[in-house]
Every structure is written in C-alpha cells, then in structure tokens.
Amino acid sequence: MKKSILAISLMSVLCSGVASANLHINGFASIKGGMSTGSDKSLYGYTNEWDFKNESLFAIQVRSDLGDRLSVTAQLMGRGSNDFDARFEWAFLSYELTDNMTFNAGRLRTPFYIYSEFMDVGYAYEWSRVPRSVYGLGFDNIEGVSLYRTDQLGQFDSTLQLVYGSFDGEAGFGPTQLQNLAGLSWQLGQDWYSFRAAYFSAKVTIDTLALNPLLDGLAGAGLGALVREMNFDDDKGTFFGLGLTVDRENLIAVAEYNKVDVSGSLFAKRTNYFVSVGYRINEYTPFISYESVDRKAKSDIYQPFLPVLPSPGLRELVVGTIESQAAKTNTVNLGLRYDFHPSAAFKAQYSSEKNKISDQRNDALVVGVDIVF
User: Fold this and answer.
1) 68-74 — which CB contacts under 8 Å span 24+ positions?
2) 280-301 per-residue burial string, b: 16 or more CB within 10 A, e: under 16
3) Which of 145, 171, 182, 235 could bridge 176 with an S-S bond, Cβ 3.0-4.6 Å?
4) Strand, coil or helix: what is 51?
5) Please, which pLDDT band fits residue 21 given cuts at 50, 70 and 90?
6) Cα torsion angle, 117, 292, 259, 197, sign
7) What 8-state DSSP symbol labels residue 43?
C-alpha cells in the first residue's frame, strides 16, 4: 500500500510540473501465458497448469526535462509474479556534462549485459525472455552513480559506461549487501555488428539464512577457518562478460559469455553463455538459441578439513552443502516472433533444459504479446 501511495505521489508531482518542464511518458507491457510439459516438472516458474501471471508485467516510465541539461527519470513496474505490486525499478537524475557525456545518480540498472537497460522490454528482442542462463545474477539494479560517454573512435561508435554504487536486498542466497561495486562496460560498433565487454567487482556480504546453523555448529566445534572459507563476509565478487551482436539484412545473431565468482566463499565459480540466431521473413522472425550453465563447486574448500571434522554426519553435511552449489545445464529454445502491429509483437517459444548432473529434462511452452507505448 505504501508503495502505491508513493507511486501516485511521484506521478502527481511530475505531472504537476508539466507546465514548466518537458515531460515524456512511455511504457511497455508483456502479457504471457505458459506451462511446463511434464506433470511433475517446472521451468522458469511454470508448472503443468497454464499460468498467465508468472512472466507478465506492466511498466510506466516518466522522464522530465528540467532544462539546463538536467533531467529526472523514474520507471514504475508491476510484475505478475509479485501480484503486480508496483515498485520503482529506476529512479535517477541525469546531468549532461557535455554533448557526449552524461552523469547519472540514483537507482540505476547495472550494465552487466547487452540487454541490461531493456531486459524487461520484451518488444526489444526476439525471445520470450532474456536468456536466464546468462542473465541470472539475482539482482539488476544498484543505488549509485554512473558516467555515460559516447565517442567516435575511427570508424567505430564507442559507448563507455563507468559505474559505482551498492546493493542491499535479496539476491538468491539471502539478504545481500554489495559494497564498493565498481566497474565498466564498453561497446564498439560499426554498421551491422558490435562488440561489448564488461567488468565489475564488489565486496559481498550475505546473511545465508539456511546455511547459518551449519556455520554456527562448525564455529562451535573450533572450525572457524572452515567457516571463513564457506561464508560470505566482505568477500571479493567479480563479474566479467563479453558480447557480440550482428544485425545484417535479415540475419540477427547475438552471443554473450560471462564468468562470475565470489572468492573466499562457497559460491560456485560460474561460466555461462548463450548463442542465438534469427532470420526475418517480412513480419515473421523464427529463431533458435542455445544456453549453457557450468557452476563448479569449490571442493578444495573442504578437502583439508575432512580429517578434522568431528563426525561422519557433519562431514557429509559440509561436503553436501558445498557440492550442492554445482550445476551444469544446457537449454535449447525454439521460437517465433510475429510483428502484427507497429507497437506489438506476438511470440511463441518452446524451451527444453537438460540438467546434466541429475540427467533430468524440463520443458516449457510460452506464448504472449509484448507491447510498447
């Protein structure tokens, strides 16, 4: 309720200034339905019953130009998976330092990926969703500042973004704090192709709620050194990513690769990538993509401590906890985009994920419409 009141208040304030400021309002929406194809299986939040809320969303973005190179932007979004409760995805001010350099401050989208800025705008890409295997850090926004610069380097268009900030919220393991998150993304493009690289680092602290009883037990047994190797306490986290886009005549190809690690913790070293190819045929764009996730458990953490663990049960629990972080999956997506309207596209996508550790396959079919307005 408080979020709704805050949202209404902000919209009222922005709209009240329309006489003295240049106000731009736009938005986007996704209406999707889907289901898994197995009675006891699930994928991307879908079960074997049709669900029209899971990936549906509605968003409004407001930008107010205050003059003298200063502007403010806010994006309010409601997701079906959260009963469409509205929350601010973005809320920041921008100041144009020069014609090609802009300073931003507030709640920002962190530029980890090619589609970071519009990963929720389904109309912007061919798939029903951005590839979860790569776009899966557990958080997308930070509170902080960024410097955005565009240049012409020879025959290449250059886009450089420097970021500094923090994150405090839920990110998979439990309540998470990222301090001194800093890094950059750089994209070089020419005509029909572009290259992109990104690197970020941060100090990571996580209150691992499910893990805490085990860590407390190990500390009580005098195994503080093992606790320090397993927990997340001001540990260095790093992200490195590469990307390639090709859009030539009717051919569309995209590939991304990234590596993620949190040193001094049980966080499995992650290597993820995807490759996607589509081909436009008038209003239709069939596509196929392949995704891969490889998370290597840090077995070297527990190996030196096995002889001193006081009981077989505790030994099994420690080994099982660390090894449970391992994952190895491959996903194939087949789909079709149909641009039936200048501002709307119908999409259908079938996804099949193979878990190579459990030898289990999960499938999901999703259809829906992505809209911009």
Assistant:
1) 69/95, 69/96, 69/97, 70/94, 70/95, 70/96, 72/14, 74/10, 74/14
2) beeeebebebbbbbbbebbeeb
3) 171
4) strand
5) low
6) negative
7) B
- Cα–Cα distance measured from residue 161 to residue 239, given in angstroms and rounded to the nearest whole number: 15
pLDDT at residue 151 tops 60: yes
> Which are the contacts of 253, defined by CB distance < 8 A and separation ≥ 6?
244, 245, 246, 247, 275, 276, 277, 278
Three-state DSSP at 319 gives helix
Average pLDDT, the chain: 93
Instruction: Please check whether residue 294 is in contact with residue 272, taking contact to mean a CB–CB distance below 8 angstroms.
Output: yes
As a whole number of angstroms, the distance between CA 76 and CA 61 comes to: 6
Q: Is 349 exposed, middle or buried (0-12, 13-18, 19+ CB in 10 A)?
A: buried
CATH numbers and ranges of domains, the chain: 2-372 (2.40.160.10)
Pairwise CA distance, residues 82 & 136, whole Å: 18
List, in order, residues 6 or more apart from 149 with CB less than 8 Å away.
100, 101, 102, 158, 159, 160, 161
Which pTM value belongs to this model? 0.91
| Alpha helices, H only, the chain | 2-16, 212-220, 224-230, 312-323
What is the distance between the alpha carbons of residues 349 and 340, in angstroms, rounded to a whole number? 17
Measured distance CA(179)–CA(204) in Å, rounded: 7
Residue type, 64: S
- Bridge partners (DSSP) of residue 199 are 184, 240
User: Cα separation of 167 and 208, whole Å?
Assistant: 16
